[in-house]
Amino acid sequence: MKNFVYCFFVLLFLIACNPKEEVDLIVHNANIYTVDGDFSTANEMAISEGKIVAVGNANSLLEKFNAKEQWDAQGKTIVPGLIDAHCHFYRLGLTQQVVDLVGTRSFEEVLERVVAFQKARASNFIQGRGWDQNDWEVKEFPTKERLDELFPNTPVALERVDGHAYLVNQKALDLAGIDGTTIIDGGEVVKAQGIPTGILVDNPMELVDAVIPQPNRMAQIQALKDAERLCFDYGLTTVNDAGIDRSTIELIDSLQQAGDLSMRIYAMISNTQKNLDHYLAKGIVKTEMLNVRSVKVYGDGALGSRGAALREPYSDHEGHFGAMVTPVDQIESLAERISASDYQMNTHAIGDSANIVVLRAYKKALEGKKDRRWKVEHAQVITEEDFDHFSEGIIPSVQPTHATSDMYWAEDRLGPERVQGAYAFKKLLDKAGLVALGTDFPVEQVNPFLTFYASVARQDLDKFPKGGFQMKDALSREETLKGMTIWAAYSNFEEAEKGSLEPGKFADFVVLSDDIMTLTADKIPNLKAEHVFLGGKKVK
Question: Are strands 41-42 and 31-33 parallel, antiparallel or unpaired?
């Protein structure tokens, strides 16, 4: 009996001396894809102070830790917080304040929406975005005459879905000082018999931008909060905002520091002299919420508006090659300047001509430099012999839904041979070793599950085309999830803090309505982000 009492008190003493570690939260009874190096699964996570302490199986963590809170996932699938590697976060918010023209099936429908918007808002400068003439029965650029009739005294600027063309009325042209003599390099003032039609492609758009009233601070803050709400709804916890100015970055930082904005943002500074002079001298700006260490440069325009720079003429527009938005010599000088800093260069390149210009400039500027992770944003049309350049540490940042949006007319633009080197995600992965995946929203929808579906099935929501579009370049589900998490994090120099669910990393994760790795492909677009956690705290 004495021995029993003695052992009992020794046991109590040992327990008292070895209390369980305290954590804030244990998530258990889950199907967790950790996206670690082995792509392993788990069913529980312990979280403390916003970071993952441990992952495990079979309730081992419930035995090891004392948790202030336990959360039963009820068998649901959990993946790392999703990262959109190329989007326009701030612009998404601003678009909530203008006429929504996405999905219009005719120019007449565009006009109807603009009229309804103006009746409700009585704006002094009407703005809208989202039209795409490729979705209309008449697949030609519209002209300004109807806008002139409807709004003779109110300027109107309607942005094409890709952000690379405006339709404006005469009042807007007059304010911007655009007439039949206006010629701007890196784009086109489209004219008929020497008179502007109202269509501006790429650089001439800046003349209109200069006269559009800028949103006040309250409108800017609302735009950022609107964008955050939309992104959290879909399970995005980090977004790469591809091209914003110092004033917007500083507003984002102030809101984050005050706790009024929670989204983690990888900010690419817009390529302006002021931005470059400030940030390249200042160096990397890094907090847990904000990372400023890259420059967004525009190489050429977009394929849908025939602004992408091609080596050979467009197959559906004789003699037209598109255009470089930034001249070749400036691309090269920018690459040299940025390579002398700690900043990353991320260049928009759609056409095969633009892509080789960018790839050659990168190769020259990065000679002898290690681990710079410069990106080609879109990498959309590549000539066969140019794919090998991506084997040299250059990261392709691509958007799978561009393939399924563009497939209806891409071959018309490029021809049957050249289109084989377009939207070649698998080949880019094989060469580069990784791909960073995004949406380019608001050009495409915010929904990352459409990204996943387009990547693996290469079909649109109507399941077209049967069998998938150029399936040789589809990605596997594992590759796709990596592209939306750990590879995107790597492309941002953030793989040590996010992108997978491993000890020491932020507890950013998404609870899905179904198992994204096993449900039938046609069900992927219906997936929902049921719950979203950022730093271990539920934001949805």
Answer: antiparallel
Q: Which CATH number fits domain 83-87+215-538: 1.20.1290.10, 3.30.565.10, 3.20.20.140, 3.40.190.10?
A: 3.20.20.140
Class at the top of the CATH hierarchy for domain 98-209: alpha beta
What are the structure tokens assigned to 98, written together?
Answer: 């203008």
**189-208 pLDDT, tens per residue?**
999 999 999 999 999 999 99
Residue 465 preceded by cis peptide, ω within 30 = yes
pLDDT at position 59, please?
81
Helix (H), strand (E), coil (C) string for 403-465? HHHHCCCHHHHHHHHHHHHECCHHHHHHHHCCCEECCCCCCCCCCHHHHHHHHHHCCCCCCCC
Q: Give burial (CB, 10 Å; 0-12/13-18/19+) of 218.
A: exposed
Cα–Cα–Cα angle for 340, 245, 434, nearest 5°?
60
| pLDDT tier at 2, thresholds 50, 70, 90 | low
The two domains 83-87+215-538 and 98-209 share their CATH topology (first three levels equal): no
Superfamily of domain 14-75: Urease, subunit C, domain 1 (2.30.40.10)
Domain boundaries, the chain: 14-75, 83-87+215-538, 98-209
pLDDT average, residue stretch 249-265: 98
pLDDT in tens, 279-290: 999 999 999 999
